[in-house]
Amino acid sequence: MTTATRPRGESRAADRSAVTRSERFRRATRWWPTLPLVALFLVPYSALPLPGLLDGPIGSPGNLQLLSLCLVFGALATGYDLLLGHTGLLSFGHALYFAAGTYVTNTIMLEAGLPLAVSALLGLLAGVALSALLGAVSLRVTGIGFSMVTLAFAQAASILVQRDPGGVTGGEEGRAAPADKLPTALVGIEHTANLYWVALAYLVVVLLIVRWAVRSPTGRVWEGIKENERRVEVLGLRPYGFKLTAFVLAGTLAALGGIVHLLLTGGATPQTTTSDFTLSLLVMVVLGGSGTRWGPLAGGILYTWADHRLGDLSGSGAVTGLPAVLRVPLSQPLFLLGALFVAVIYLLPGGLVRLPARLRAARGVAVEP
Fold first, then answer.
1. Of residues 223, 351, 204, the one with CA closest to residue 284
2. How far apart are CA 176 and CA 114, in angstroms?
3. Which of 148, 176, 246, 270 is a plausible cystine mate for 87, CB 3.0–4.6 Å?
4. In whole angstroms, what is the distance from residue 299 CA to residue 286 CA?
5. Rounded to an integer, what distance in angstroms lies between the CA atom of residue 164 and that of residue 88?
6. Around Cβ 238, how many Cβ atoms within 10 Å?
7. Distance, CA of 365 to CA of 369 (rounded, Å)
8. SS3 for 26?
């Protein structure tokens, strides 16, 4: 009995051919994110309805406002994942830097009378300085100690905002942004599309920066710190400096998001300073898939959409007509949101981003004899 084998040259040629096909496919799909980006850019021009998902045409002012918030929080969750998913740092105080961008920018416009551009630059610098200062202190401890220190800083800032020292924060009511200091193109319901494009630009900036940072040599050190910080030290590197870099970069992106949020909502509110706000970011990241390229973005968009739309569902006639045993829990938006989160975590370990791989795996099992 003999076994036929391919000549060595033929085998190498087949291997090269497979590699070439794989490389061609990778190059062909390299720029696929530009397609959804173009679609998102054209959303304000669309009159297409999405029944059940949105009320009325996609391009209506109300829907553009919701979609803008979805983009902002998707980008914010992506920036937060630099800490959680790529460096292994669980911060409970990320809301502080988002609020810094919002409150500092708004306060400078109100109190100093400076225009938006100057105020936004100062607000962004305040977020950078605050994240560098508090990060330098917080990162002196590790593990749960780090999480508790960041929570303490955030809680102190939240209390300070609500106490309204000198009347500059507005206390529990917050403060509206001065319309006379904002560009005319960003004020009024007729300019909602411009605000939407600002939110989209913020998303693109965050995605590009995060992608560049993660693929850089520093990003590879972050992954090493997440896996085994002691091993990074053995290699002669100082994890503290790399972790501080991740902390400041994530804080800077959050401060920029706070400025965009100020434009979208027309004011600064104390809800953005609470630890609950950071917990929402944590839920977004876990919901979409921590440590992945698109997971935090998907989680942020889904969570924000559900947070706004499930309130409408809970008060709809379809729910009010149900028996009391079903009507009472379904009339609570937080119950619906929590049930959605538990279902996704239970059915999709690893987050929404793992769904395509699981479907492919299930299809492969189904076709096996």
1. 351
2. 15
3. 246
4. 7
5. 35
6. 11
7. 9
8. helix
Residue 228 half-sphere exposure toward CB, CA atoms < 13 A: 5
Do the Cβ atoms of 284 and 57 come closer than 8 Å? no
Q: How far, CA to CA in Å, does 234 sit from each of 25, 155, 220?
A: 39, 36, 16
- 241-279 pLDDT per residue, tens: 999 999 999 999 999 999 999 999 998 998 888 888 888
Q: Write out 46-68 in H/E/C secondary structure.
A: CCCECCCCCCCECCCHHHHHHHH
Residues 6+ apart with CB under 8 A from 95: 154, 158, 272, 273, 274, 275, 277, 278, 281
Which helix (DSSP H) or strand (DSSP E) does residue 268 occupy?
A: strand 267-268
For residue 355, what are its two tokens? 């769904």
**More confident site: 41 or 360:** 41
Torsion, CA 353, CA 92, CA 337, CA 310, rounded to 10: -100
Rg (CA), the chain: 24
Dist CA 209 CA 309 (whole Å): 30
Say how many C-beta atoms besides its own lie within 10 A of residue 302's C-beta: 20
pLDDT of 6 higher than 90: no
**Amino acid, single-letter form, for residue 2:** T
pTM of the model: 0.86
Tokens read off for 30: 């390299």
Instruction: Map residue 70 onto helix, strand or coil.
Output: helix
CB-based contact 243:89 (threshold 8 Å): yes
